[in-house]
Amino acid sequence: MPRFSRPKGTQDILPEDQPYWAHLRAVVTQIAQSYGFERIDIPMFESTELFARGVGEGTDIVDKEMYSFKDKGDRDITLRPEFTAGVMRAYIENGLHVQPKPIRLYSIGPIFRYEEPQAGRYRQFNQFNAEIIGVDGALADLETMLLAWDIYAELKFQNLAFQLNSTGCPVCRPTYLAALQAYYKEYEDTICEDCRRRIVHNPLRVLDCKQHQCQPVIAAAPKITDYLCEGCAQHFAELRSYLDTLGKPYSLNHRLVRGLDYYTKTVFEVWAEGIGAQSAVCGGGRYDGLVELLDGPSTPAVGFAAGMERVVMVMKAQGITVPELPQPPVYLAYLGDASRQHAVRLLAELRAAGVGTQIAMQGSLRSQLRQADKRQAKVTVIIGEDELARGEVTLRDMASGEQTTVAAAGVVALLRDRLA
Ligand code: AMP
């Protein structure tokens, strides 16, 4: 056992896995930008109060999962357990709300949650996240959903489908919650202990309980879509009409919820064929009450977040091939001290000419060539003492093994042109 090991729930992403991550980040960036989303980077830690309000007391995240501490200035600080609260804080603080709407933002980076680690669940993980702020029409919901969808389509995920629900709004939700609570009262002896608590404090959350004994109760529970007010019903119908127009498959899933008052109307997930059965690869929805809750002006908003570790797991499980990361095409090998000095000069000249180059640092010529092969060099420049004395170097084409001798003086221009 080494003396130090990484903290529980964290991981090292080694070079061999980086092509997946680079490809994922590139696809997210490219699609988000081409759909008009602009990148925003926010701090990895914020005041604890921001998340207590913006994610909500009574959620698992705030009650159990936050990395919170006092800093040396006695401030209550929390490592961000999600993006949205921080993005909305930045939106208000930087006066983005005076700009023409909508504001479309995306973010990529690490997130921290104190959860019990298991496959695909970590204490530090990465999300990509997007929001459209300032528009209440269902077209904004559609745009965030399409962004998520098209990212997965570009990654070549198979069997994509939306799961869709509405959670109503402060006008219609209370009637639904009363109906749900009345229904659950009948099953108090059947449901799990958590649900007995949830039905009082956070009633919508009974719907996504995973306990076996609660499943039949959930299946027959009243559906919120039967209780939507006219505004919410219209919004939902409009969104569905867009999805129908585009022929995007979706399932209505009355169990899909967010347990907090400032979440309104749309909730959605994208499901993809994962490791075996279909599983969620992102989750999102509308939160028209959030900006106001954070002391900003009343502002509608909709967004989603996706866990990148899980996306990478699905990429691997579906056998998706990703581009290799570029390696420097030129490798410098040499024999003897004088040659090494020449190689160092040549290294600087090639790099100055824009030719990606690595230099052997040790070993026999044979082992240097093995290294060149391993580093996937296209051409190895072999500098030997005798050749150098004649003003020549040898170029070895690493694919064919063919070697040619060329004038040392012209090698930079030659390689630059050949590799251009
Ligand atoms: P949420 O912010 O809870 O809606 O989660 C958004 C996405 O983040 C989920 O769909 C997961 O893919 C991912 N996610 C959530 N928690 C974790 C975790 N502990 N480890 C890895 N990914 C996670």
Kindly describe this structure.
The protein has 420 residues and is of the alpha+beta class. The chain is 37% helix and 22% strand. The chain is built from 15 helices and 16 strands. The strands form three sheets. Strands 1-5-6-11-10-9-7-8 form an eight-stranded mixed β-sheet. A five-stranded mixed β-sheet has the order 13-12-14-15-16, with helices on both faces. It has a three-stranded antiparallel β-sheet with strand order 2-4-3. A hairpin with a 4-residue loop joins strand 9 and strand 10. It is elongated. Bound molecules: adenosine monophosphate. The site of adenosine monophosphate (AMP) has 16 residues, from strand 6, strand 10, strand 11 and helix 11. Adenosine monophosphate (AMP) binds next to strand 6, strand 10, strand 11 and helix 11.
Key terms for this structure?
single chain; binds adenosine monophosphate; 5-stranded mixed sheet; 15 helices; 420 residues; 16 strands; alpha+beta; 8-stranded mixed sheet; 22% strand
Q: Would you count the extended β strands for me?
A: 16
Structural class: alpha+beta
- Global mean pLDDT: 95
Roughly how many Å is the radius of gyration?
28 Å
Strand content: 15-25%
**What is the helical fraction, as a range of percent?**
25-40%
Q: What ligands does this structure carry?
A: adenosine monophosphate
Largest sheet geometry: 8 strands, mixed
> How are the strands of the biggest sheet laid out side by side?
1-5-6-11-10-9-7-8
Distance between the termini: 48 Å
Number of helices: 15
Uncertain regions spanning at least 5 consecutive residues: none
How does the overall form come out from the CA principal axes? elongated
